[in-house]
Design brief:
The complex is a heterotrimer of chains A (224), B (40) and C (233). Chain A has helices spanning 3-21, 23-43, 47-71, 75-79, 82-88, 93-123, 131-156, 162-190, 196-221. By secondary structure, chain A is mainly α. Chain A is globular, with a radius of gyration of 18 Å. The A-C interface holds A 148, 151-152, 155, 158-161, 165, 168-169, 171-173, 175-176, 179-180, 183, 193, 197, 201, 204-205, 208-209, 212, 216, 219-220, 223-224 and C 65, 117, 120-121, 123-125, 127-128, 131-133, 135-136, 139-140, 143-144, 146-148, 150-151, 154-155, 157-159, 161-162, 165.
Chain lengths: 224, 40, 233
């Protein structure tokens, strides 16, 4: 079976399973909503302040919610020993990784699409810069979180206290990406500075780490 | 300036602390080996 | 081997004492900051040593994934730990320098913030090593080490740019503050001293790791033999 066939088969299976149960997406949305509300109590921003700090609030909220999705990425496979079966099969390991990462990417993008109007409402946001730029940032940023997140989730299932281990190893490495996504969003929302550098940095981060993930996934999958 | 001395002192405290951690590692290993020796 | 260690240890002690003298007495007093600036002679060499150690960790991690030699893994964990120790020194001496000069403990300036992120990455590496289950630890850790080190230039780049967009006071003088040759002498002597000291720390820690590995191997062998004997009966 080719890379493409295995990838799309796995992806379709995951999307179908998720669509039926809506487990991850529901918990993610509710969690993100909680984060939004709690932050508004913590900061209580005025309209002016909102635009300046919204970038940070939004991405921290999405980051925490994404961790919920990432943590259960491999849970299903583990439960049914599907991971062992995959390891023994001749299917290319990267197909599994891309499928999982793409699945997580879709879940988190759906989350963002649902949460965006809520953020606008709660913080009275109106973007100074064009919104299509925000969409570009969202795509690059989400992939940055999801690609490393999916890989580190595969690593953390081999540890004790695996749910805590994932954010612990993911967050430090993601710091430059987080800085970039927050700065890019803030730059677009406020119009105070150009988001160009940050968008470029996100793109570089995405390329570099997607490559590293693809190079190392097979090794980690077979680590026993 | 007391900040200067504090910085130099802190440096050596940190290194000393690490040496203590490593030497504890050696004693723990020694204890484990001894214990294994008796369980025959 | 043992005698080499002791000779090097005495050499290290000598160099460190020389470095201390150079840093505290011989080097000229800085114009604007005064004597507090002398923290520089401990702060900067520690940073350079930490960085070198993390680089060795990166190489060792790649080598381990290629050859799977336990000695290489021992080197990896050793350099990560000692690197974190030196990194901690940088993060403690930094604020102690900033407070008297700027009046604030921390400014999120580019270099110190990047060092903090470096520290976080390698501490997360050490935590992964502690919490991973048994056999897979070296492989998982090596993977994380590669991610971490590849991230380092991106971290520095991002935080540097962040600080040019939103400037803050810089700890330890600007990028291009010139150094008096006497200051260079003190700096380099201290760096040589800390490199040697760091090397000796690694020697000790590496030995501990190799002993532990051998012990684990022996235990594994024993249980294998026991189960063989039992089934033979």
């Amino acid at each position: 079976m080719s890379l493409g066939q295995v990838t799309s088969a796995t992806l379709k299976k995951d999307l179908r399973l998720e669509w039926r149960s809506k487990d991850a997406i529901n918990t993610m949305i509710f969690f993100a909503l909680l984060v939004v509300v709690i932050f508004s109590f913590a900061f209580d921003p005025t309209a002016e302040e909102s635009r300046r700090i919204a970038g940070g609030l939004i991405w921290v909220g999405f980051l925490f919610a994404a961790v919920v999705a990432l943590n259960q990425t491999w849970a299903r496979e583990l439960r049914n020993q599907a991971l062992d079966a995959f390891r023994v099969s001749p299917a290319p390991a990267n197909a599994l990784f891309i499928a999982k990462a793409a699945g997580n990417f879709i879940f988190v993008m759906v989350l963002e699409a649902v949460m965006a109007p809520l953020f606008i409402v709660f913080y009275n946001l109106r973007s100074v810069g064009p919104s299509y730029q925000l969409a570009i940032v969202a795509v690059l940023a989400t992939w940055a979180l999801v690609v490393n997140g999916t890989f580190f989730a595969a690593m953390s299932i081999r540890t004790r206290s695996r749910e805590v281990m994932l954010p612990l190893i993911l967050f430090p490495v993601s710091i430059p990406a987080l800085l970039a996504m927050v700065q890019a969003t803030t730059g677009i929302l406020t119009g105070d500075f150009s988001p160009q550098f940050w968008v470029a940095l996100l793109a570089v981060y995405d390329v570099v780490f997607t490559t590293v993930c693809l190079l190392l996934f097979e090794t980690v999958l077979h680590a026993e | 300036m007391k900040y200067l001395y504090a910085a130099y002192a802190a440096t050596w405290l940190i290194h000393l602390g690490y040496l203590v951690i490593v030497s504890r590692g050696f004693s723990k290993l020694r204890d484990e080996v001894r214990q294994r020796g008796f369980n025959r | 081997m043992k005698s080499t260690f002791y000779i090097l240890a005495i050499l290290a002690l000598g160099l460190l004492s020389l470095g201390l003298y150079q840093g505290l007495v011989a080097a000229p007093t800085e114009l604007t900051m005064g004597n507090v600036q002398r923290i520089f002679y401990y702060h900067v060499p520690s940073a350079w040593t930490a960085f070198l150690l993390f680089f060795v960790n990166f190489l060792a991690s790649i080598m381990y994934l290629v050859r799977r030699n336990p000695r290489t893994d021992a080197l990896a964990v050793t350099t990560a730990e000692v690197g974190v120790v030196f990194c901690t020194v940088v993060l403690v001496t930094g604020p102690l320098w900033a407070k008297p000069v700027w009046g604030i403990w921390w400014t999120w300036d580019a270099r110190l913030t990047s060092t903090l992120v470096l520290w976080l990455i390698y501490v997360s590496y050490l935590i992964l090593r502690r919490y991973a289950s048994g056999g897979q630890t070296p492989v998982l850790a090596a993977a994380l080490a590669i991610f971490g080190f590849v991230d380092v230039p991106i971290v520095y780049l991002s935080i540097r740019f962040f600080r040019t967009q939103h400037p803050q006071p810089v700890i330890g003088g600007g990028e291009n503050s010139g150094l008096d040759p006497a200051m260079w002498k003190a700096l380099l002597i201290n760096w040589a001293a800390f490199l040697l000291f760091g090397f000796l720390l690694c020697w000790i820690r590496y030995r501990l790791e190799r002993l532990r590995q051998t012990f684990e191997e022996t235990r594994a062998l024993e249980s294998l033999l026991e189960s063989d004997v039992r089934s033979a009966r």
